[in-house]
Amino acid sequence: MKRLIAFALLASFGVSLAADTPPNIILMMGDDHGWEETGYNGHPHVKTPVLDEMAKTCFRFENFYAGHPSCSPTRASFMTGRHPNRMGTFNPGFSIRPEEITIAHVLAKAGYHCGHFGKWHLGPVKAESPTSPGAMGFHEWVSHDNFFELNPSLSRNGGAPEVIQGEGSAVLIGEAIKFIDRASKAKQPFFTVVWFGSPHEPYSGLPEDLALYDDLPEKYKDKKVRLTSNETGGPTTRSQGEVLRERYAEITAMDRAIGTLRKHLAATGLRENTLLFYCGDNGTSPDASLVLPHRGVKGQVYDGGVLVPGLIEWPARIPQPRSTKARATTSDLLPTLCALTGQALPERPIDGMDLLPVIDGKVTERAKPLWVWQFDTSHLKKGEPYIEPKLQEGTTPLAKKAGGKATRDFSNFKHSVIAEEDYQGPRAMIDGRFKLVVHEAKKGGAAKQELFDLVADPAEKTDLREQQPEVVKKLEKGLRDWQESVLKSLTAADYRK
Questions:
Q1: How far apart are CA 72 and CA 382, in angstroms?
Q2: DSSP states of 412-445
Q3: pLDDT of residue 18
Q4: What is the pLDDT of residue 382?
Q5: Domain 373-495: which topology?
Q6: For 411, which DSSP code?
Q7: Residue 194: helix, strand or coil by DSSP?
Q8: DSSP codes of every residue in 76-141
Q9: Cα separation values, 42 from 30, 52, 303, 423, Å
């Protein structure tokens, strides 16, 4: 009944669909794709004609945030609506916990056929993993433990890895289209997650895409950057111009693959009632950063580390182009889709909020604070594993080696007692126009605080903490109170109700 009521409400927004016709849902995410690396946001070099067209014709978030400055934690927030520290997904390589409730769990209950394609990075994708896509609610998956390049090696429904020939983004979209067609033939609404491996380093590109950026090696030849070698799997130093040529080739190929999907939806009559979403998982990586609008890069809590592209295309509900300055984040996806499909929120703390009033133009400002926090793992007491280590071993190979291995293993630890040091790590709270940033002082001492007015100063250049002490005090308390809630979740208290 809740679901029928929810879809009946669509009529009140001018949607000419039957009340019992749920929208298909496709959520896409790029890997290390920062806010500024799109044509529509004014990048001087990168070519993204498909995303540019979407930005002109659909719903555009001008201030969309990844849930964390790095990938695994953001993916946890994307799936659960919760901050990753609640489930011990502190950094890349930390898994999600099996008790978490994901969007796939929610939408499967609502009758959706759920599929995941591409980078997972929330635990191993093998069938026996308690945190594989299948264990976390997906009916089908063609996925990788981590990132991948050309001719990716992927696991199909938890089986042994198989190499699929082709450009990585095109391979994922090809698999997603097959899944969509099967669901459509069975007359089932589909929920499809496509998490690209691009443009994460090490970089590679097709000749035709590389050729678009042949001028960059000379333009940026003087700066040297560190990244992974495709040949050895170890670190190497190269000129930034060569690196940017390959990175932007990957972004353009990913953009083209998104175009292939959009064309298929149109050709099969699915476009009108399909919600198609795209974002990045964190800000631009340091090797690719140019002098651009926001302070910081991947791995930092300044906006340059967490602002990403954010677009929604859904002609049935968004027939005309719109944009919003209201801040939104990956943690908002689960509560938004719960509201859209008439499903109850999971009975546990949720950090995100329902974005439907923003999408419908009824709300122009975020009604809830937004938090960013990098847990300080240098103080982490690695006690009892949360999951048996054998089940945390990855299987899908990648170019970048770690400890001599071409696969990735995961970890998560039980954390039953909270200490003062658990509150540490770079962190920020955004409430309205103000953002409080906190860093621990080196060698002890009081933490360093900065206050920014993001409306007047989006580049976070002017620290206002001395001029606005009351605002600092309010945000400081709000941040600490929220951290207390997060750390209570970290003890697994949310699962014991």
A1: 19
A2: -B---S--GGGG-SSEEEEETTEEEEEEPPTTSS
A3: 38
A4: 81
A5: Arylsulfatase, C-terminal domain (3.30.1120)
A6: B
A7: strand
A8: HHHHHSS-GGGGT--STTBPP-TTPPPHHHHHHHTT-EEEEEEE--SS--STT-TTSTTTTT-SEE
A9: 18, 10, 17, 38
Q: Where are the domains of the chain?
A: 2-368, 373-495
Helix (H) or strand (E) holding 396: none
Residue pLDDT, tens place only, 270-321: 999 999 999 999 999 999 999 779 999 999 999 999 999 999 999 999 999 9
* Residue 442: per-residue pLDDT: 76
Report residue 12: phi and psi, to 5°. Answer: -70, -15
CA torsion, ordered 161, 177, 26, 157, to nearest 10 deg: -30
Helix axes 240-267, 168-185, angle to 10 degrees: 20
**Residues 6+ positions from 218 with CB-CB distance below 8 Å:** 241
Q: What's residue 2's pLDDT?
A: 40
Any idea what the Cα angle at residue 360 is, between residues 354 and 363, rounded to 5°? Answer: 65
Residue 329: CB atoms within 10 A of its CB come to 32
- Predicted confidence (pLDDT) at residue 242 exceeds the cutoff of 90: yes
Cα 419 to Cα 429: distance, rounded to the nearest angstrom: 21
Buried b (16+ CB within 10 A) or exposed e, 82-120: bbbbbbbbbbbbbbbbbebbbbbbbbbebebbbbbbbbb
pLDDT digits (tens, 9 = 90+) for 399-448: 999 989 999 999 999 999 999 999 999 999 999 999 999 998 777 677 89
Query: CA-to-CA distance for 157 and 116, rounded, in angstroms?
Result: 9
Homologous superfamily, domain 2-368: Alkaline Phosphatase, subunit A (3.40.720.10)
CA distance 473 to 495: 33
Rounded Cα distance, 438 and 418, in Å: 20
Residues recorded for the chain: 497
DSSP state of 344: P
User: Which token pair is 313?
Assistant: 């295309």
Q: Which distant-in-sequence residues (6+ apart) come within 8 Å of 421 by Cβ?
A: 376, 379
Strand order in the sheet with 427-431: 370-373, 427-431, 434-439, 448-453
- Looking at the DSSP bridge assignments, the partners of residue 372 are 428
Residue 16 identity: S
Nearest CA-CA partner of 68 in 376, 366, 301: 301
Position 21 confidence tier, pLDDT thresholds 50, 70, 90: confident
- What phi and psi, each to the nearest 5 degrees, are found at residue 431? -135, 110
Q: What is the pLDDT of residue 497?
A: 67
pLDDT tens, position by position, 107-133: 999 999 999 999 999 999 999 999 999
Name the CA radius of gyration of the chain, rounded. Answer: 22
> Distance between alpha carbon 180 and the CA centroid of its chain, in Å?
22
Instruction: Read off the DSSP letter of residue 346.
Output: P
| Global confidence as pTM | 0.95
